[in-house]
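Q: Entry one of two.
A:
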Amino acid sequence: MLIYVADLQEERLRLLTGRGLDAGRESVSHPDELMVDGTLPGRAYETIKELPEAGAGAGRWWVPMLDGAERVGVLRIDTAVGAGDESVVPVMRHLATLVTMLLIEKRPHSDSYAPEYGFGR
């Protein structure tokens, strides 16, 4: 699972690594930024809909993260079942809700991502 959080302008989704000062910096295997416009993760973010990624192996999904009606970002979740198997969608929604709640709850106690990702508005 990867967590991508939207910037203030809602133009980019930034990888949240959780590794202190390097949080959000590019890793070897994952891009540090994804554009909202023109990408599948961006479409999941904009439409607030869970979207499977075609050709990503067993099952890769992009799941929107919401704080009430406010969009926070997206989760990239890799599952063992095929992307066409909709039975995993409710579980992924619950996971996204839990991750969002933890992220929002911890934002006042961390400044490693707050300014860069637009938290603390």
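Q: Entry two of two.
A:
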Amino acid sequence: MSVFFYAVPSLIMALVLFMAAKVVRRSLEVRSAWSSGLTAEARCLRSYTTVSGGGHDTSVSTTLHHVYEFMTRDGRAVRFEESNGRPTVVEGDIVTVHYAAQNPEKATAHAPSPVRAAVGTVVIVAFCGVIVAFCIGFMITFHEMSASGDAFFGGI
């Protein structure tokens, strides 16, 4: 049964580290798109929301998604989806997108705001670090308590 007290925190840490890696990767993609200097006019093809939560004791979270399509400078049509866009953008609207020539499918319709994006990324990664530290502390504490309990009960 003690394996449970190592497996669950290890699983939580793996999921949190995966989430942190995804956040950092997307942050780098957006930063690359902003710094490339390449822009295009994109049409919003679709706008929709997803809802999560709303269970017995949880709050509801709604995320707005947009699907955009634009032409790169070399004439290639690119379609991409982005979450947390401007709520005023609806199907058919034209927006400016930023993209990197090597990865135009990683474009963004978000206006350049590198400081805000960096702060957001740092906050999320720091929060993930706190969760990982808590899990490690929990496993160390459990291990020490198990070892001292074994020593105590082994001497009886």
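A: Comment on entry two: The longest strand covers residues 38-53. The helical segments are 4-36, 114-154.
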